[in-house]
Design brief:
Shape of chain B: globular
Order of helices and strands of chain B: EEEHEEHEHHHEHEHEE
Largest sheet of chain A: 4 strands, antiparallel
Radius of gyration of chain B: 17 Å
Structural class of chain A: alpha+beta
Number of helices of chain A: 11
Mean pLDDT of chain A: 85
Radius of gyration of chain A: 33 Å
Strand content of chain A: 5-15%
CATH class of the domain at 1-80 and 158-167 and 189-225 in chain B: Alpha Beta
Low-confidence stretches of chain B: none
Strand order of the largest sheet of chain B: 6-7-8-3-9-10
Largest interface: A-B, 22 and 26 residues
Strand order of the largest sheet of chain A: 2-3-1-4
Number of strands of chain B: 10
Oligomer: heterodimer
Helix content of chain A: over 70%
Largest sheet of chain B: 6 strands, mixed
CATH superfamily of the domain at 1-80 and 158-167 and 189-225 in chain B: P-loop containing nucleotide triphosphate hydrolases
Mean pLDDT of chain B: 92
Helix content of chain B: 25-40%
Distance between the termini of chain B: 26 Å
Low-confidence stretches of chain A: 1-10
Chain lengths: 323, 225
């Protein structure tokens, strides 16, 4: 009999009212989330168009990211073992080539040196498509020189590799030095530009998404100005009035982001065939990849956050004007 | 309960809408504010609800000096007031129940308690069976009664009404005023702005008469003929 009364007394009134306030706040969040979703569903065409614009805008940086990541991956695969090819002068014999190779192998910045004979060079040339006829035409004469393939030590930076190549050019027995790491440096520089372009593009498109959501919420608020007026008159705080519009912004962003992820996946699927063919042509060494799962899941969440920000900025301003 | 200590205010055009207005309405009292169009009746109610601020003077509502209420405090003050408007200002896309429920939803009242209080308010204004209907399907008088139910559902200390019978026929107007008198009897302070003198006389309540923003007469209930 007395248990309920004891419980009632045990909880101070202020705590009870605070708990009730929190429950009310939570309840209104649930109501706002559901009501805003219903409002979006009540005008499907407008909602679809907004979501489609957001989806397309956000899919672009994802697609560029996919492209860049794969170009980088190709670059990594193709330039995994950058080497400096040192072509010796034609008068240099095998013994001198091996001697020089031994000397170079002692250098701290060199990991390995491989000696390639003129015959090996000729065989490689013959194996290349379109060169076999020309090689046969040479009969027994081999004009190719001895070649030393110098492998720089791992972790050597571009400047040190350049310095190594320059020092090799200074060797008396050397005719020509080809630094295969140079194209990789150029590719890296290009990729750096590409990454920056993607970042700028992503920033601009995120701003566009924010403006799209903001404008949609602005018209939504304008069309409900009477309702907002009534809510404010009966004692609603601006946070209370704003809440459904914030959720609308979150829904727009979430759906737009989800569409962007789906579009990016569709682009990935569309490119999968030709990419696989390219990979096969390089003996499966290109390691072409797909968009990471965290990005596919993160895009809708980031877009939802953008939608919230857009809705928050616009609703704050509009309600300030209305109040 | 309601105190104007001489209050002056100007309209957007810079004209004096209320001038040196001083009067008090005691707790649990019902009073009418009357006067011709432009006398300052609506301005007076707007000042109470902090829709506008006075240029000079002090207004006290339910013990709260309105000058000390900041922008963030306005919603809290309005939750302590019940407001009835001539155009009832209902949300037409929400049911009668949802309209009346609004102040309780805003106040964070628990769902079960909300249901109980909304039905009690609707019963009070004779519209309990209309709770699931949209306001559009109701007559003007019924819509006004929904507006009144919404104003009283949160049990406000003060009820203000701006021409609540302006759009109603005389019979309905008397019924609505009767409702206000009932709320007064239950302890609510009621202030009604109206220009309907015959109706006001019929109610036998205190009458404050304004003319060009000035108080020209304050007639006690027993003196109303």
């Amino acid at each position: 009999m007395s248990a309920p009364a004891v419980t009632e007394k045990a909880v101070p009134r202020s705590e009870r009212s605070q708990a009730r306030r929190f429950a009310g706040w939570r309840e209104h969040h649930g109501w706002s989330a559901a009501a805003s979703l219903r409002r979006l569903g009540a005008r499907p065409l407008g909602t679809l168009m907004t979501v489609a614009v957001l989806g397309l805008a956000l899919a672009l940086p994802l697609a560029f990211y996919l492209l860049l990541a794969n170009v980088q991956s190709m670059g990594n695969a193709l330039g995994r073992n950058p080497a400096i090819s040192v072509f010796l002068k034609a008068d240099q014999a095998g013994a001198q080539a091996r001697l020089l190779a031994g000397e170079l192998g002692q250098r701290a910045e060199v990991a390995a040196v491989t000696v390639k004979t003129p015959q090996q060079g000729l065989d490689e040339l013959a194996a290349l498509q379109g060169f076999s006829g020309a090689v046969h035409a040479l009969d027994d004469a081999n004009p190719l020189p001895w070649v030393l393939v110098v492998q720089p030590r791992a972790g050597l930076d571009a400047a040190a590799v350049d310095a190594l190549a320059a020092s090799l050019r200074g060797e008396q027995a050397v005719d020509l030095v080809q630094d295969s790491s140079q194209w990789r440096q150029r590719l890296d520089a290009l990729l750096g530009v590409g990454h920056r372009v993607v970042l700028v593009l992503a920033g601009l498109l995120a701003l566009a998404a924010l403006l799209v959501v903001g404008n949609t919420i602005r018209t939504d608020i304008a069309s409900r100005s009477e309702e907002i007026g009534v809510l404010l008159l009966v004692g609603a705080s601006r946070a209370f009035v704003r809440r459904p519009y914030l959720y609308a912004g979150v829904w727009y962003g979430l759906f737009g982001g989800a569409l962007a992820s789906l579009l990016a996946l569709a682009i990935e699927l569309a490119l999968a065939g030709p990419a696989a063919e390219l990979d096969r042509a390089y003996g499966g060494s290109l390691m072409l990849g797909a968009l990471p799962w965290w990005l596919l899941l993160g895009a809708p969440l980031a877009a939802a956050a953008l939608g919230w920000i857009g809705a928050r900025l616009v609703s704050a301003w509009q309600l300030y004007q209305a109040d | 309960m309601l105190r104007f200590d001489p209050v002056s205010t100007r309209d957007e055009g810079g004209h004096e809408a209320l001038s040196q207005l001083s009067f008090e309405v005691a707790a649990g009292e019902m009073a009418f504010v009357t006067g011709h169009s432009g006398a300052g009746k609506s301005t007076l109610l707007k000042l109470i609800a902090l829709i506008e601020r006075p240029s000079h003077g002090q207004i006290v509502v339910d013990g709260q000096a309105l000058a000390k209420v900041g922008r963030g405090g306005i919603p809290k003050l309005r939750r302590r007031l019940g407001m009835v408007f001539q155009d009832h200002r209902l949300l037409m896309d929400r049911t009668v129940f949802a309209n009346v429920e609004l102040p309780l939803l805003i106040g964070g009242v628990a769902p079960a308690e909300r249901g109980r209080r909304v039905r009690a308010a609707l019963e009070k204004v004779g519209l309990l069976s209309y709770e699931r209907q949209l306001p559009d399907s109701l007559s003007t008088g019924e819509q006004q009664r929904v507006g009144i139910a919404r104003a009283i559902v949160a049990r406000p200390a003060v009820l203000i009404a701006d021409e609540p019978t302006g759009n109603l026929d005389p019979q309905l107007a008397v019924e609505i005023m009767g409702l206000f008198a009932e709320f007064q009897e239950l302890g609510t302070t009621v202030l009604v702005a109206s220009h309907d003198l015959p109706l006001i006389k019929r109610m036998h309540k205190r009458v404050v008469v304004l003319d060009h923003g000035r108080l020209v007469a304050d007639i006690a209930a027993e003196e109303v003929l």
